[in-house]
Design brief:
Chain lengths: 198, 320
């Protein structure tokens, strides 16, 4: 089994016909915190993947889970990590996927272009490691906020345009639920510290 | 070239002097309220009354007189307006009296630059943890950008709030750290991280509910383990995300040895570099302002009014 990526919390292995994601032990935190985080995140991620996949969204197909070895087996997706080939043209796809999983009651919790894979014109969302179930406008807004920050920090030159288009397409998908989400989004931005305008 | 820097964003009034980028003086005094948190007016009064003394101590340490200073730098923000004004007024007055340039320095960038100088790390991720500030910052495309931060209160603030509830005086950090060393039982506490952002208000609420039923040693231990794990996880995510291979921890809470130990272990595990910052440069200090001022010496004179909400990522870093 070949390790193909070592993220901040998990190692990803290529097992031939599938991908194995194993959450690794972190030496800096005490055992109680470490195992409880690894266990709950593994189980939750599997549940989220299953829900999104069976609803037809572009996520890796989950195959099996083990909470004793903290591993998830999932289908392989070929393609490029989106942060290396990001382009404004992808925004509508991204927005559609985000709105779709939100409607399903899933919050990703770590939306960045590094957690997306471009395969042709399709965009797959991966790594639901910090995901959770919620229908709250506040949580949906916090996902949008993360995405906005990721765009600014990772693709500063295209960020403003990309964010504008993302919100526009997201609003279209969410319909009248959008108003409240937008209010929360503005609120979160205000809550973060130090705004030149305030 | 001699640059004198003044720090006054919160409790600490500090004066530092650098000679061609080398720190030759660093003096400060920190207001320690007997009870409760910081009162802006009292911090300002503290700074006004101690400014002359700290200023002359720094000049003595450097063996200089005021007229030999080539430029005055001050901490322009973020911070509390009343104490911020003290640094501004002193710098603006000295600048006009001696006909020298005055530059405003972003306080967080001051922390970052002195951390780079003190550790020799070229391009680290910096975890900046103090009373009011909790940010994960690193350099990307011409600016210091904030990758993660607290969505509510600062980590130091959380520790002080808990400390106050059990009757500890400000700052509660060192005493909480002592208690934590004697803690044996881990009490499961809310662990809240969203992407690279953290949130501490859930922890505060949780602890205020159990504070009467548990031993302070166990609470302190569990609080540190939970909150610091969140901070180190956010830092590691930023390192992975931005492909950076070193970490520094700065700000008042960087004095905590458990937090440093966790940062060190995280870096060890991922083959990254971790270096500690000497205490004199981790808390608020004037040397960091003087040094950042030195780096920015060629920038055009800009608006130097205090900016309580000065964002780290609003400054173009022309010298890197």
């Amino acid at each position: 089994m070949k390790m193909i990526a070592l993220g901040s919390e998990a190692a990803i292995y290529d097992a031939g016909d599938c991908i194995i994601k194993r959450r690794i032990k972190k030496n800096y935190r005490i055992g109680e915190i470490d195992s409880s985080l690894r266990r709950s995140r593994t189980l939750r991620e599997f549940k989220i993947l299953s829900k999104c996949y069976s609803a037809g969204f572009k996520v890796p197909k989950p195959l099996s889970v083990s909470d004793s070895t903290y591993t998830i087996k999932m289908e392989k997706i070929s393609g490029l990590q989106l942060d290396s080939c990001f382009d404004i043209d992808f925004i509508e796809r991204i927005s559609r996927e985000i709105a779709g999983i939100h409607k399903l009651g899933v919050i990703h919790g770590d939306l960045t272009t590094a957690n997306m894979i471009a395969e042709g014109k399709e965009v797959y969302i991966i790594d639901f490691g910090l995901g959770y179930f919620s229908l709250k406008p506040e949580d949906r807004a916090s996902d949008l906020f993360l995405m906005k920050n990721a765009l600014i920090s990772r693709h500063p030159k295209k960020a403003a345009e990309a964010h504008r288009l993302l919100l526009k397409a997201y609003e279209k998908s969410m319909g009248k639920e959008f108003k409240e989400i937008e209010t929360h989004l503005k609120d979160i931005e205000k809550r973060r510290r130090y705004h030149e305008s305030s | 070239m001699y640059i004198l820097g003044i720090e006054s964003t919160a409790h600490t009034f500090g004066v530092g002097i650098v000679k061609d980028g080398e720190v030759i003086a660093n003096q400060r005094d920190t207001l320690k309220p007997e009870k409760g948190g910081i009162i802006p007016r009292e911090a300002a009064a503290h700074h006004y009354s101690l400014a002359p003394e700290i200023l002359s101590k720094a000049l003595n340490e450097a063996g200089l007189s005021l007229k030999e200073i080539d430029m005055f730098a001050f901490s322009q923000g973020p911070g509390i307006l009343s104490p911020l004004k003290v640094g501004y007024q002193v710098a603006a007055f000295l600048g006009s009296k001696f006909g020298k340039k005055v530059v405003g320095v972003n306080h967080c960038i001051g922390h970052l630059e002195i951390a780079r100088l003190a550790t020799g790390l070229e391009d680290p991720v910096m975890l900046y943890v103090s009373g009011g500030n909790t940010q994960v910052i690193t350099f990307q495309e011409g600016r210091y950008r904030v990758f993660g931060e607290t969505q509510d209160i600062g980590i130091g603030n959380l520790i002080d709030k808990i400390g106050r509830r059990v009757g500890l005086s400000f700052p509660a950090g060192p005493k909480i750290e002592e208690y934590a060393k004697k803690g044996r039982k881990y009490i499961k506490m809310p662990y809240s991280i969203k992407g690279m952002d953290v949130s501490f208000s859930g922890l505060e609420t949780f602890i205020s509910r159990i504070i009467k039923n548990e031993k302070i040693e166990d609470i302190a231990y569990s609080l540190q383990e939970t909150a610091f794990s969140m901070l180190i996880e956010a830092s590691e995510r930023a390192m992975a995300y931005c492909s950076k291979s070193s970490l520094v921890i700065t700000g008042g809470v960087a004095a905590n040895s458990r937090l440093n130990e966790m940062g060190e272990r995280m870096c060890q595990q991922r083959g990254a570099d971790f270096r500690r910052i000497p205490m004199e440069f981790s808390g608020d200090n004037g040397a960091m302002i003087a040094y950042a001022g030195y780096l920015m010496r060629d920038q055009r004179a800009k608006d130097i009014m205090p900016k309580p909400y000065f964002r780290t990522d609003s400054v173009d870093i022309g010298y890197r």
